[in-house]
Backbone:
């Protein structure tokens, strides 16, 4: 006969062994999970094949090389060899298309007025319109030319020959110059969310014989250049035609008061549409560089021998309109050497 005491003991035994069983199952599942994590670290599974959903892509269009020297190369990285941790594929993004707007000139007129350019504009072509700075503005007269289709614009002036600017009176420091440039973009309502404010760069320039030359410090500078940089894409940085600058630059001087004297603003928005494409090995990209290929974006040395000190993978954003954002290998070297080599395999490019 089952007594209350016996039933209680049997219940305790069931709970005991059931708990041990469940605990064992839990530990087994944890160990399996740990084993999977360790396996993925030691021998990660290969990524899915590239989709190449955009088909063959147009070749990347680079500007003229920064030097005509016939350069040769040697590898002088920390490890003594080219990096070996690059992925085998990367994403290619479609650039957002700009739609024609019949009211484009009137809309940009409001942007121009917001930064001190007079009411009214002149049509230079069906896309390019021109504004002149208001006569009430303090500072040097300026001209703004804008592409009303995509919003790109330039500001120009005779700042290279203006004595007030050459004297560098009231030249702001880098922090104040950045604030002025940000205020201008904000007033024009073009301070885009894809800009990384933490990556904003400055360059110092002096005016020598009517031309800009690098300045070693603010005390000998007449111009502060502010460059805006877009945020990393898929954890990869964006590089522009000039590696230490961008396609969105604003020049600020002194004079009667701190003022914006020139600008070149080319912004291409990146869409969410992407496809994956295979990458060539970095060793193949290096071979292309040694054979005279790729784009030399910067070099200030006089020697024909360049030591390659680092290689990174990034995206190239041209100063000219492009349909796709594609990756490049960036070779860095001595004497401010930078070179870009297309990273996609040749079979992915429509040549």
Residues:
């Amino acid at each position: 006969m089952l007594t209350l005491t016996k039933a209680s003991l049997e219940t305790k035994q069931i709970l005991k062994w059931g708990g041990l069983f469940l605990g064992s199952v839990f530990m087994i599942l944890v160990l399996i999970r740990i084993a999977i994590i360790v396996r993925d670290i030691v021998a990660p599974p290969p990524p899915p094949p590239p989709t190449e959903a955009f088909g063959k892509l147009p070749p990347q269009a680079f500007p003229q090389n920064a030097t005509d020297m016939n350069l040769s190369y040697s590898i002088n990285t920390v490890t003594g060899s080219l990096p070996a941790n690059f992925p085998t594929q990367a994403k290619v993004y479609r650039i957002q298309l700009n739609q024609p707007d019949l009211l484009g000139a009137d809309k940009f007129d409001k942007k121009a007025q917001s930064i001190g350019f007079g009411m009214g504009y002149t049509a230079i072509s069906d896309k390019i319109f021109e504004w002149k700075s208001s006569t009430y503005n303090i500072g040097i007269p300026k001209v703004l030319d804008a592409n009303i289709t995509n919003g790109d614009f330039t500001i120009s002036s005779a700042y290279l020959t203006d004595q007030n600017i050459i004297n560098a009176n009231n030249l702001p420091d880098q922090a104040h110059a950045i604030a002025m440039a940000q205020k201008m973009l904000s007033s024009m309502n073009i301070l885009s969310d894809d800009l990384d404010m933490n990556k904003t760069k400055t360059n110092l320039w002096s005016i020598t014989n009517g031309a800009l030359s690098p300045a070693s410090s603010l005390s000998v500078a007449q111009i502060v250049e502010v460059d805006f940089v877009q945020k990393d894409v898929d954890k990869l940085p964006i590089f522009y035609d000039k590696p230490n600058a961008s396609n969105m630059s604003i020049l600020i001087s002194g004079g009667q008061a701190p003022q914006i004297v020139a600008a070149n603003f080319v912004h291409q928005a990146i869409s969410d549409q992407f496809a994956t494409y295979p990458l060539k090995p970095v060793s193949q990209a290096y071979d292309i560089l040694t054979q005279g290929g790729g784009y030399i974006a910067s070099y200030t040395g006089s020697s024909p021998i360049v030591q390659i000190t680092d290689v990174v993978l990034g995206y190239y954003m041209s100063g000219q309109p492009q349909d796709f954002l594609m990756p490049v290998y960036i070779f860095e070297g001595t004497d401010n050497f930078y070179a870009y080599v297309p990273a996609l395999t040749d079979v992915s490019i429509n040549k």
Summary: The chain has a mean pLDDT of 91.
